[in-house]
Amino acid sequence: MPKRRDETVPEAEFRSYYGRPVIKAPVWHEPHMPVYLYLGGMSGAASVMAAVARVTGHDRLALAARVAAAAGAGVGSVLLITELGRPERFLNMLRLFKPTSPMSVGSWTLAAHGGLTAIGAACAVTGVLPAVGRAATAGGAVTGPVMATYTAVLLADTAVPAWHEALCELPFLFAGSALASAGAALMLTTPRAEAGPARVAAVAGAAAETAAGMLMERRLGLVGEPYRLGRAGRLMKASRALTLAGGLLAAVAGRSRALTALSGLAITAGALCTRFGVLEAGRGSAADPKYTVVPQRRRVAAGD
């Protein structure tokens, strides 16, 4: 009988044709896209808070929220157009409305939301046509939730593994981050005595963002590795630490201006790190074939 050779089977290497990635990596640039994702989410959440604050009699907070929503949508639109390269490319996306396309829905949402928040803010600041301003603010509250989350659906609708497999969690991650961002922005721009609802929003948003991020990385398993490794891992860890610290400080920020400033800045920095980290994780997962091949093989083996 031949002797049995004691050999260890080496791990399979996932190679692609001519060493190229299996899928194309995202070509979005920094800082344009991650900052746009942050500003769009903040604007969407702030517009909802503006409508709620107006109805509940928090006039100073409502004014700050209207201005924040308009500023976020306006600056975000400029960044998006800059990313696209030419303004007509954004206009071309408005030629047709396709409910099944996240890009089409997002483009129309941005256009409507930007116009409504601009009108609402202008009427609130100038005092002209208050009825029109109230109607625009109410309209912004309708487009706000879509504005805060459509970018997560847009990312998940791609073939990038770290985004596509996170379809269930990314909208909640972005929604929580948007709420925390809006709360932080309004904490910094509203007198402490009237910023109570903003602090509550910041705490709730920070908790939701942290929980969604942890659930996402745990459920994704192998495909969640890019969120823990390299630059993306550092950004996501920084985001979690800053968001948690900012949320905890927001709970007691009513006591002093210093705590308010620290909380607002920490949450804002954490939200930006989240957007940069998610984009970087997407690039990492697209560059390594194993994040595409291994899940496919597992689905085939499971008969899915």
TrEMBL record:
Compartments reported by the entry: Cell membrane
Organism domain of life: Bacteria
Membrane topology: Multi-pass membrane protein
InterPro entries: NrfD-like (IPR005614)
Residue stretches spanning the membrane: 35-56, 63-85, 105-129, 141-164, 170-189
Gene3D superfamilies recorded: Formate dehydrogenase/DMSO reductase domain
Main location: membrane
One GO term describing the cellular component: plasma membrane
Entry keyword set: Cell membrane, Membrane, Transmembrane, Transmembrane helix
Coiled coil: none
Family from the record: Belongs to the NrfD family.
This protein's name: Polysulfide reductase
Organism: Sphaerimonospora thailandensis
